[in-house]
Amino acid sequence: QVQLVESGGGLVQAGGSLRLSCAASGSIFSINVMSWYRQAPGKQRELVALITSGGSMNYAESVKGRFTISRDNAKNTGYMQMNNLKPEDTAVYYCKADVWGGGFMRAYWGQGTQVTVSS
């Protein structure tokens, strides 16, 4: 079994910054893609950013130039630095990891962390 624990959410004023972390633990051989999603009230969950095991990154258009995704493979931990936050970034942020373990790959989700940006 694998657990993902997120941290770093909170309340920040528009223009501020936050850094989210996602630590994976358990039966992990390796992690393929790590990604961050968000879900605002009344909206569908959307992909914000992803990073492959090789370091390739992709971002949603709405966060390009403001958010930076990274990972530390030795620590099985992913990060997302969020700068110049806007009120529309307010959402619950979830990390997702595609984990190789026990001979198969499976997707795991964190519990979510609230990010609130005030205007």
Describe it for me?
With 119 residues, the protein is an all-beta fold. The protein has no helices and eleven strands. The protein has strands at 2-7, 10-13, 18-26, 30-39, 46-51, 57-59, 67-72, 77-82, 91-101, 104-109, 113-118. The strands form two sheets. Strands 2, 4, 5, 6, 9, 10 and 11 form a seven-stranded mixed sheet that branches. Strand 5 (46-51) and strand 6 form a beta hairpin. The N and C termini lie far apart (40 Å). The model has no long low-confidence stretch (mean pLDDT 96).
Average the pLDDT over all residues and give the rounded result.
96
**Structural class by SSE content:** mainly beta
Instruction: Give the percentage of residues in beta strands.
Output: over 45%
Give me the count of strands: 11
Distance between the termini: 40 Å
Largest sheet: 7 strands, mixed
Poorly predicted regions are none
Helix content: under 10%
Rg, please? 14 Å
The number of distinct helices, counting runs of at least 4 residues, comes to 0
User: Order of helices and strands, N to C?
Assistant: EEEEEEEEEEE
Shape: elongated
Helix and strand layout, with pairings?
Layout: E1 2-7, E2 10-13, E3 18-26, E4 30-39, E5 46-51, E6 57-59, E7 67-72, E8 77-82, E9 91-101, E10 104-109, E11 113-118
Parallel strand pairs: 2-11
Antiparallel strand pairs: 1-3, 3-8, 4-5, 4-9, 5-6, 7-8, 9-10, 9-11
Short summary:
The chain is mostly beta strands and 119 residues long.
List keywords for this structure.
single chain, elongated, four-stranded antiparallel sheet, seven-stranded mixed sheet, 0% helix
